[in-house]
Write a structure and sequence with these properties.
Elements (H helix, E strand, L loop, with lengths): L16 E6 L5 E5 L4 E5 L5 E5 L7 E6 L5 E5 L4 E5 L5 E5 L7 E6 L5 E5 L4 E5 L5 E5 L7 E6 L5 E5 L4 E5 L5 E5 L19
Antiparallel strand pairs: 1-2, 2-3, 3-4, 5-6, 6-7, 7-8, 9-10, 10-11, 11-12, 13-14, 14-15, 15-16
Length: 196
């Protein structure tokens, strides 16, 4: 099977593209953590970007909602950002200082879930901006990627403690050790068969 790959050069050299998501309008949104921007690319390859107001924010992960809002993590400044369809940016400072917000995803009820790699927590922010953080049992878990499962819970990788974690919308945490020692699980996704 032959696969055709097209590449699109970004306007800023070494912009550091990282996270990517599809917006409600069908265009791609992506983070550029070195350029401190959120980019947008249409299906025909037209590129635009938005400069983030916080200098050196370290924007990493990004997710979109059915309402068209774009949510993203600002790893270096301990914030979660929201970009509306009208271009308004709102920032939410996390209660735990230097928590290192890393990955972000939308839950089944519309809330936004994220990992705090340095803070050793999983957090959730409601649509009205209320933030709740949940401590992980192992102090060296280093939670990284997170995804909404088909069971209405959130699943995440624990890079440091070699486990896969599950958290319910009520904050109940269950952990599953990986048999291979020092496997360092990082990314996670739900497959077409609904398995992780």
């Amino acid at each position: 099977m032959r696969i055709n790959i097209e590449e699109y050069e970004l306007p800023h050299i070494d912009s550091g593209p990282y996270g990517i998501t599809t917006g409600k309008d069908g265009a791609l949104r992506f983070t550029q953590h070195k350029a401190n921007q959120i980019g947008r690319m249409t299906v025909d390859g037209k590129l635009t970007h938005i400069d983030l107001p916080t200098v050196n924010a370290g924007v990493l992960s990004i997710t979109s909602t059915a309402q068209g809002d774009i949510w993203f993590t600002e790893n270096r400044v301990n914030k979660i950002g929201k970009l509306t369809v009208t271009g308004e940016i709102t920032k939410y400072t996390l209660p735990t200082s230097d928590s290192g917000p890393f990955e972000i995803t939308q839950g089944h009820n519309g809330d936004i879930w994220f990992t705090e790699m340095n803070g050793n927590r999983v957090g959730v922010i409601s649509r009205d901006g209320e933030i709740t953080e949940y401590d992980l049992p192992d102090p060296g878990s280093y939670p990284s990627f997170i995804v909404a499962g088909t069971d209405h819970a959130l699943w995440f990788t624990e890079w440091g403690s070699n486990q896969i974690g599950r958290i319910t919308v009520n904050g109940k945490i269950t952990e599953y050790p990986i048999p291979t020692k020092n496997a360092e699980p990082h990314g996670i996704v739900v497959g077409s068969d609904k398995a992780l």
